[in-house]
Design a protein that fits this description.
The structure is a homodimer.
Chain A (H helix, E strand, L loop, with lengths): L13 H14 L8 E2 L1 H8 L3 H14 L2 E4 L3 E4 L4 H22 L5 H19 L3 H18 L3 H24 L10 H9 L3 H31 L18
Antiparallel strand pairs in A: 1-3, 2-3
Helix pairs in contact in A: 1-3, 4-7, 4-9, 5-6, 5-8, 6-7, 8-9
Chain A binds a DNA duplex (30 and 30 nucleotides) through helix 3.
Organism (chains A, B): Mesorhizobium wenxiniae
InterPro entries (chains A, B): GntR_C, TF_FadR/GntR_C, Tscrpt_reg_HTH_GntR, WH-like_DNA-bd_sf, WH_DNA-bd_sf
Keywords (chains A, B): DNA-binding, Transcription, Transcription regulation
Amino acid sequence: MGKLDFAPIADTTRRAEIVALLRRAILTGQLEPGQKLNELRIAEQMRVSRAPLREAMRELVQEGILTSIPYAGTFVIDVTAKDIDDAYSLNKVLDEFAIELTWPLRDQRFFDELDRRHEAVKQATRDRDTTRQIETALQLHGLIHEWADNSVLLETWQRLTSRLQMYFALHQRARKEPVPDEDIHETYVRLLKGADMRAAQSHAREHIGLDFEELLAYARSLEQRDSKGAKADRAGPTRNRPEAS
Amino acid sequence: MGKLDFAPIADTTRRAEIVALLRRAILTGQLEPGQKLNELRIAEQMRVSRAPLREAMRELVQEGILTSIPYAGTFVIDVTAKDIDDAYSLNKVLDEFAIELTWPLRDQRFFDELDRRHEAVKQATRDRDTTRQIETALQLHGLIHEWADNSVLLETWQRLTSRLQMYFALHQRARKEPVPDEDIHETYVRLLKGADMRAAQSHAREHIGLDFEELLAYARSLEQRDSKGAKADRAGPTRNRPEAS
DNA sequence: GAGAAGCAGACTGTCGACAATCTAACAAGA
DNA sequence: TCTTGTTAGATTGTCGACAGTCTGCTTCTC
């Protein structure tokens, strides 16, 4: 028999597609932080009953980008400066760990994939497609986590990434100029190809820190604005989180 | 008006209670790894319809202790030696980070809570209650993550803990003698109260390593046994994970 | 007897309807 | 005018039933 490996066919349940749709809507900022998701309306728009929609929402709640309050509703999570700070500081630790694990596993296929993803970022930058630029940049950074051969690490990073992507989208959407960021990733890629692991680790930490400071400042300005009243329609969940212990 | 703070009342939806029930059943080993969860049977036993049960199961899938295959069923995750290895190595990194964050925040309340949880472990040990011993030991180790004031870290650790608790339960259930482990935590607690952060960090790494080796050896022996046939009724999910990208 | 086609049976996925709960507007009383 | 009780509307939580899919057995053919 032939040695051809077939890729598994796509999961074809309504629930899975709803999850993908909702996740994309949230991560690209089409659904704003704090916004309430009306089950009936969304179900009608998607031509789906509420059952699979609700199951999809439960998944996204556990994924950390939605939050649910019993009998009140399900909301897109609110972005606080502290959340961003927390996520980034943990991300640094994970990056360092991922580089350590990936380092001895690097091979030609790794370098090729690294270049491919780097090229995708540059392409998105040329196209002035900010949404895609965020996506591709995160995919570039995700390579070390995928390559590290530690499923728990990968899973953790992906969860963190969801949130970071949300924050970035919020940020990018807010600022006027589409995007400057010419080629910050150049050094990152070069170091990952090099021989000095420590250098790669500390650069990852530095580099991430840069975008971060700007994002954090933006988040803080948002909070200042919000706290001065004018809370708009973004219903503020005031009760406890649904996560039981 | 008075300054009394009321705690938020308990979330009282069937779904939340089902989640708690199922999680406990899985973490204590009442539901074995690989076992399939029959929706109809469980729903009848709990006197609940399938809707909230299914939603609860979606949450636990995202929590990482169940795995779902469309049109085939939902299963308790299988424990592989690699999973344990992955989880533990990440756990070390997280512990180190948590100690770093917690260190400057330690105060009298921290030390009191530390002693309280340490005492709970010793009590469970005296009672020869292995399940509770696992629970309390993990709670003791969780304190640094709770105290670190980083919600993302805490969430990540709790997710990891779920899995570790499962593995521990499996292990404890298997070995004959109830439990030796007199007071390994004594040093850990003392170092956390001390002045040398590095020492505390490296001890956390060492200490965790101990239990780990034993657990890992057990997992490997399990896999050897399984691969020699006799796969029992534990239906092995052979298709792809449901997690779409 | 071996292998393919077809056929129940069981189970998961989805739907529409009902029950429980919350919110906000309104009325009544001090 | 402020507080409290009431009520209607909207929304979420739950239920029972139906449809789609998989699995294992049976049957038929060679």
